[in-house]
């Protein structure tokens, strides 16, 4: 039997789905599409090389943190209400 508890307050949630709510968060870099004009980059291959070099030196977890992360939480009804009233705490 699967037991759930509220990921925010630790309250034990019932065996059924009544009173259990799922919260999903996505955090990702806000980036507009890059529009490249033919003359905007003098040497595109060199610029791409710099990007690849920077990524090779970067910490993979930090790169992932800065680009995209998704979370899923189970919460009780009381914590659902609190999150809706003040989502960022
Ligand atoms: Zn709770």
Could you characterize what this model shows?
The protein has 89 residues and is α+β, with helices and mostly antiparallel strands. It has one domain (4-32, 41-85). The chain contains 3 helices and 4 strands. It has a two-stranded antiparallel ribbon. Strands 3-4 form a two-stranded antiparallel ribbon. A hairpin with a 6-residue loop joins strand 1 and strand 2 (12-13). The chain is elongated. The two termini are 32 Å apart. The relative contact order is 0.29. Residues 6, 8-9, 11, 75-76, 78-79 line the site of zinc ion.
Question: Short description, anyone?
Answer:
The protein has 89 residues and is α+β, with helices and mostly antiparallel strands. It has one domain. The chain is built from 3 helices and 4 strands, in the order βββααβα.
Across the major sheet, the strand order is 1-2
Largest sheet: 2 strands, antiparallel
Count of DSSP H/I helices: 3
SS elements, strand count: 4
Domain count: the total is 1
* Ligands: zinc ion
* Helicity level: 25-40%
Properties at a glance:
89 residues, alpha+beta, binds zinc ion
Structural topology:
Elements (H helix, E strand, L loop, with lengths): L3 E2 L6 E2 L6 E9 L15 H14 L2 H8 E9 H9 L4
Antiparallel strand pairs: 1-2, 3-4
Bound molecules: zinc ion.
């Amino acid at each position: 039997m699967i037991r759930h508890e509220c990921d925010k307050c630790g309250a034990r949630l019932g065996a059924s789905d009544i009173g259990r709510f799922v919260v999903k968060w996505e955090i990702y870099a806000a980036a507009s599409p890059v529009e490249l004009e033919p003359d905007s980059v003098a040497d595109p291959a060199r610029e791409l090389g710099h990007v690849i070099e920077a990524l090779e030196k970067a910490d993979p977890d930090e790169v992932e943190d800065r680009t995209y992360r998704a979370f899923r939480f189970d919460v009780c009804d009381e914590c659902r209400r609190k999150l809706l009233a003040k989502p960022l705490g």
